[in-house]
């Protein structure tokens, strides 16, 4: 992996770590987590937003693997849109597709590596 790619990943995941931690701390100051009741009271929006941020950061984290694994920009863009719009539905479909493409005698670790040229 190139130095620039490592730096980009450090920046991305550092941002995710710092921003999600900061938002969660701020939400704690608005309402303790144990008082969250979903969307039934106005202050609950802080934890609802925190949950959405956390979910989309998880989608981005999964997408980093997809972008690294896929070879064409068309596939990368298509999977990005699918993951951002469908979330875990698209992510599950991607993993199942990768398992289907894996040769029967191949080790499972091979699924995690980029597709061969």
Verbal overview:
This protein has 117 residues and is mostly helical. The protein has one domain (3-112). It contains four helices and no strands. Helix 1 (3-30) runs antiparallel to helix 2. The longest helix has 28 residues, at 3-30. The protein is elongated.
Give structural attributes.
single chain; 117 residues; mainly alpha; 4 helices; elongated
Percentage of helical residues? 55-70%
**DSSP helical segment count:** 4
Which strand-content bin applies to the residues? under 5%
Give a short account of the largest sheet.
none
**Low-confidence residue ranges:** none
H-E order: HHHH
**Overall average residue pLDDT:** 87
Q: How does the helix and strand content classify structurally?
A: mainly alpha
Q: How many distinct folded domains?
A: 1
In total, the number of strands is: 0
Q: Which term fits the overall shape?
A: elongated
Q: For the terminal residues, how far apart are their CA atoms?
A: 16 Å
How big is the Rg?
18 Å
